[in-house]
Amino acid sequence: MNTSRLRLRYLFDRYYSKTATAQERDELLTIINDGAADEELSLLIRQAWEDIKPNATLFNADQTNAMLSKILGADASGNNAKPRNNIFLWAKISTAAMILLFVGFGIYIKHHPRKQQQTTLVKVKRPLHDALPGGNKAILTLANGKTIILDNAQNGMLAQQGSTLIKKTADGQLLYNAAGTANTKAAPEINVISTPRGGQYQVILPDGTNVWLNSASSLRFPTYFTGTTRQVEITGEAYFEVAKNKAMPFRVKTNHADIEVLGTHFNVMAYDDEAVMKTTLLEGSVNITSGGFSARLKPGQQAQINKTGQNKVINDVDVDDETAWKNGIFQFKDAGIDVILRQAARWYDVDITYKKGVPAREFNGHISRNVKASELLNMLKYAGVDLKIEGKDIIVY
C-alpha cells in the first residue's frame, strides 16, 4: 500500500477516534475535496459504518441504506456510481462535510450507547512513549578545543579566529566571514561542526559554499582556504552548494572516497551504518575516486561505493528522494523497513530492535520530518508492521 493511502487511513482513524489535530482535520478535508482518493475513502466509510451500524438504532434499515448510499455516491441499487469529473467544488465540499458529520455521528453512537444495549467501547491505543522530531542542533569545536553549543548560542558574533569572524545568523545558520584574511600570513585553523542524532544544521563556509548537515554528521574545515584546493572532510550526510572557483577546486573527503568539484550541487551520504556510500549530483559535475574506482558524474547520476568493493554509477536517479531530508521530508522509493527505521533512529534519536528479524516489506511515499515518531510509525502499522515505541527504543516484532 502506498504512503498516500496509508496517510488517508491514518487521518480518517484520527478523526474517527477524536484525536485529530486541527491541521489533520484540514488535511483530511483537502484530500476529500481533491477526489483522487474516493475509492479508498468509500472503503473506509463502509468499514466504519459496519462497525457502528449495530448500535445505530436511531435509523431504520431504509434510512441507513439511503444515508450510506448518499455519502458514498451509490445508485439506488446499492452499486457504486462512477465518479463525476465535472463535479462542482461546492458539491464536493458538501459531500466532505457530510462524511465528517457521519463519522462524528458514529463516534457519538459508540460513546453514548443506549442504556439497554451492551456495548464494548474500543479505546484508541496511544503510544506510552513518543519521540519528538529533530531540529537545528549542532556543536562547533574550535581549533583550541573550545566548544559552542549552537542551538543554545545567541545570534550574532560567536568567535574570532585570526581574521575570520564566526557568526550565528537569525535564521539559524553558521556563517564564516573570511573577508579580512587576504593579507594575513597566519595559517588557517581547523574547525569541526557536528550534529547529534536528532539534529541538523547549515553552514556557510569561508568561500561562500553552503553546506547542510543531516543528523549524526560532522564537517571538518579550515577557517579560510589557501593554496590550490579547498578541502573539507565529512562523516554522515551532507548536501553541498559549492561556490565556483576554477582556480581552486573544492574537495570532499569521506571514509570511503574523495570527491572533487569546481562549482556544483550534490549530496553525499556516507554513514558508517549504511552498506553503500552514495554521491548524487544535481548540478554541474564531480569526479569521484575510491581505490581503483573512478567516475565523472553528470546531473541525475549517482555513484555508489560499496564497502565490499562493488562500485557503480546509477543513471536517472530521483534526486528529490536523495535530498528530501534537506527540505524537511522523509521520502522513500522501494525502501525496506530497515532503511526507513535507520533514518528514523538518526532523526528521533532512538534505537531500533528487531525481535524476529527485519520484515520483508518495501514502501513508497513521503511524510514530513516535523511529525512525532509515532506518526511515522503509525503509517508502517497500517501496512501491517508490528512495532511500538518504548522509551528510547523502537521495537519491531
UniProtKB/TrEMBL annotation:
Keywords: Membrane, Transmembrane, Transmembrane helix. It comes from the Bacteria. InterPro entries: FecR, FecR_C, Ferrdict_sens_TM. The chain crosses the membrane at residues 87-109. Residues 330-396 form the Protein FecR C-terminal domain. Residues 192-287 form the FecR protein domain. Gene3D superfamilies: 2.60.120.1440, 3.55.50.30. This is FecR domain-containing protein.
